[in-house]
Amino acid sequence: MDELLKKDFYFDLPEELIAQDPLEDRSASRLLVLDQETGELSHHIFREIADFLEPGDCLVLNNTKVIPARLIGTKKDTGAAIEVLLLKRKENDCWECLVKPGKKARIGAQIEFGDGLLSCEVVDILEEGNRLIKFSYKGIFEEILDQLGEMPLPPYITHKLQDKDRYQTVYAKYKGSAAAPTAGLHFTKELLDKIREKGIGIAYVTLHVGLGTFRPVKEENVLNHHMHSEFYQIDQEAADIINGTKEKGGRVICVGTTSCRTIESAADENGRISPCSGNTEIFIYPGYRFKVLDGLITNFHLPESTLVMLVSALAGREHVLHAYEEAIKERYRFFSFGDAMFLDTHEHFQKTFRSL
Question: Which of 47, 223, 235, 276 has the most crowded Cβ, counting Cβ within 10 A?
């Protein structure tokens, strides 16, 4: 493939369909089920997801935890307001950060937060204008961050989040993300218990979500787009559950594009996973051959985003754009706090609807 055009993944989304607040009941979101092969659609409520899973299947969940990575501070010399967003932890109290306004963050600039409880200095300017920042503080960095930081909600969410926990999955465990793996926000502990009781395996993997996932694709030819690297980790238990599911003929269903990118990065050419950790820049778009994943639970994504391209790699661009068209017509809620979609395997979709 020599060319894949960004404009081919465009759709027109009315602004009022961008969900600004999470629902009170996580599992009350709507669920659009799509047959990967035929493009057939069916409308449901998310808590019915257990009906679409079979004993012997396995769900893969990303147990990363979002840190309150947005800090509002002032420049020491001028008192000007400045916003720092933590993206990636480096060594010796240094972080790669996004700073606004960038022109105030030259090398050597010093910034204070919380009346000096936390301070920092810009030590380098990185590619695409990100800053390398060294922090100074007394005590434990994570505790200070919990005290001073805000949840880094995506720019299309303009409402203030009333409860920080609503931008975390109920199984979030390892701190390190600048954004939530949002497909997982629909699960409650009760729903996960119901899924386990049905004989469905649950494998937890970790991928710390960076903002690179959400960066707009600037290249007209998508193949020239470069993904930012994100840290991932898979332990022995998760590898065993996923490999065991495949060996017994069960389906591996990823919850979210981050879980998908994790297992596809870790798998060998035979689709086998070994415990590992590292950084991935995997970019999945139409033409990609999935090594492990069979089905995908995901939210509705931005037009022309790498996430729409990943979903299109699994179910075909035409089927996905048609599903999005239907979702818009039916007033589904979009993006991080929005509704969900399940890209089901053809055989299972047909079997499920014959039995309903």
Answer: 47
Domain boundaries along the sequence of the chain: 6-66+163-355, 70-148
Average pLDDT over residues 129-149: 95
Return the biggest CA–CA distance within the chain. Answer: 70
Place of tokens 């179910």: 315
* Helix, strand, coil % over all residues of the chain, rounded to 5: 30, 30, 40
Q: What is the pLDDT of residues 318-334, one digit of tens each?
A: 999 999 999 999 999 99
pLDDT in tens, 84-106: 999 888 999 999 999 999 888 99
β-strand pairing of 276-280 with 230-234: antiparallel
Q: Which helix (H) or strand (E) holds 31?
A: strand 30-35
* φ and ψ at residue 60, rounded to 5 degrees: -110, 120
Q: Do residues 251 and 345 make contact, with C-beta atoms less than 8 angstroms apart?
A: yes
| The predicted structure's pLDDT at residue 297 | 98
Q: How far is CA 275 from CA 83, 161, 201, 204, 237, in A?
A: 38, 36, 17, 12, 8
Among the residues of 250-336, which ranges form H helices? 257-266, 306-315, 317-329
Q: Which architecture does CATH list for 6-66+163-355?
A: 3-Layer(aba) Sandwich (3.40)
Mean pLDDT value across the chain: 95
Q: Which CATH superfamily, name and number, covers 70-148?
A: QueA-like (2.40.10.240)
Beta carbons of 247 and 56 less than 8 angstroms apart: no
